Structure formats: structure tokens, C-alpha cells
Amino acid sequence: MQPSSLLGWAVFATIVRLTSPAEAGDDEVAAKRIAMMKCQHYLDMVSIPHDIMTLEMDSRVRKVYSVHCPLQNPYVVGGRRVEKYEFPHMVALGFWARLIWPSGGVTLNYTFQCGGTLISELFVMTAAHCINKDLAIVRVGVVDLNDPDAEDIWIVEKIVHEDYSPETRYDDIALLRLERNVTISLHVRPACLGTDRTERIHRATVTGWGKTSQDSHLSDSLGKVSLDVPSDRKKCARMYRGIGQSPLIDRQICAGSLDGNQDACHGDSGGPLQVFEEGECRYHVVGVVSYGKICGSAEYGLYTRVSRYLGWIVKTAWPDDWSHQEYWESW
């Protein structure tokens, strides 16, 4: 399915570099509250009302709300295929590709080389290293990239964090503003942003359409894999200590499988590292796939830590909410 706007919108999308001031005190609290409020808001939008009879003396009928929740059962090495509706926040980033025929003709199409996370009706979060002039669309609401019902939306603004450094790979995070709002549904729904609370974990899930092994092709089917998140970062720090490598910093998360059987890989960049909140049937994205060494090796990969950028994300994605303090102070 083609995007619903003119070709030039994607070609001339603006690349903007923004930074956030040091997040501390009131700003940090405000960003966290707004992120939590939005998390609940998007869940409420797809909740289904049910009438239940209480066990109280008056036996009144009360209304409760629930959301369709798939059972929790491959750039993802050693992963499993994803069920429909399981990751409604997952998007694929489409880049212009020029196919030159033997006759000399040229056809324009898309290749999907990075992933991203829908965080609002209008914004997608991804890795800064995925941003270039050929990035044109996001594909939403699909598990199979060849799904005939896939919806493509033009990207009109690419916002790279000002502190991003390709050399150190620090601050590897970016936001994409879409041409129009997505329609929230069971298979298209923003994820929750990770906070320091949701980072107290030992396992997390990474999803993507990347390679399923170092030598394979990119996958058309979305894959998922569960990774260890070590509480002791010293081993991970040692893996990334050496000539030409930047030291591990607090704004990065380590995750992986030391037996080498499960990993993220080429094509998964920009996608989410996420934890599942079973009681509420929602994912909290704690990291953005940044980089690693050899796919499927017995070493951890590195992910940009989302909670360290909450202020920057909230001010960019929800500027009206940020400017009206009374909106979140009473929440």
C-alpha cells in the first residue's frame, strides 16, 4: 500500500537536531508523569467494556474494562515468530531503493532496514544511526512486511538527538514525525516509555525484521527474542573496552545471551528493547537497539536507555501537554 501523500514529502523531510537540557528535579518528575499518563491513555483507547455482577449485598452490575491480550509465548537471532496484535507499537522504517533493470530502466521501491517504536499517534522513536536522506516512510500494523493491508505513512521530520556521535555511538536516539496521525486500534497502538521503575529487570524482549543469523537475509516476518539484562555491568563493560571502542556509559543498557543463541542483528537497529507488564497487557520500551559485535556471539549488545531521554521525548512528542503543567500535576 502506498503512502497517502505526495512523493516529495518524504524526499524533502526535514532533519532537525535537538537536545534536552539536563533533566533533574521538577522537569524529570513532569516528564515521567506525562509519559505514564500517555501510557494509560493509549491503553484505555483500545479497552473493551464488560458488565459484571458484583458479590456485594446489592448485587449491582458494574462496568469493567479489558484489552485483547495475545498469549506471551527472526536482526533477531534464535528468535520466534510473533503473533498478530502482540507488538502493536512495532513499525518498520522504509528507505528508498533504486532497482536498475538490464534495459536501463529504474524502479523506485522501499527496503526495510531498521525498526522503530510508535510512541504517540504522530511520533516514532528509533536509533539516530538509522537516519539518512533515503529514509522515507514507516510501515505500521503488520507482522509480515508483505501484508497487503500494510499501512505506509510518510515521514515529514527527522529529529536526531543533538549529542549523538557516530564515533562513540552515544545518545543513539531519534524521533520521526509522521505526516498524519495513525488510527489507534488493536494492531496499531503506541508503547509505554520506560522509566527508572521499569528498568529494574533481568529479562527483556527485542523485536525486529532483521537477520536471523550473521549470514542470512533480512526477514519479512517480525521476530522476537528474550534476552538477559545483567545487573552487574562490569562484564559488559569489559567487552566494550579496547582500542577503537567507547567505554560503556549509564545512558546505555547491556542485553544479550552469553551462550550466543539469541541476539539482535543487522536490520533490527532502532527497534525496541521492551518489558511486558502482564497485569495491564502492555509493553514498556526501556531501550533502543543501538549496536553490538558479531550477531549471535557470546557477547552483550548495547541499547540506548530510554529513561535518560524522557524529557527530550516528552517535550518533542507532546509539547502542548508539557506547556500546561496543570494537566499533569493533578494526575
Automatic annotation (TrEMBL):
SMART domains: Tryp_SPc (SM00020). GO terms for biological process: proteolysis. It is found in: Secreted. Residues 1-24 form the signal peptide. Its main location: secreted. Residues 76-318 form the Peptidase S1 domain. InterPro entries: CLIP_Serine_Protease, Peptidase_S1_PA, Peptidase_S1_PA_chymotrypsin, Peptidase_S1A, Trypsin_dom, TRYPSIN_HIS, TRYPSIN_SER. It comes from the Eukaryota. SUPFAM superfamilies: Trypsin-like serine proteases. Belongs to the peptidase S1 family. CLIP subfamily. This is AAEL005823-PA. It comes from Aedes aegypti.
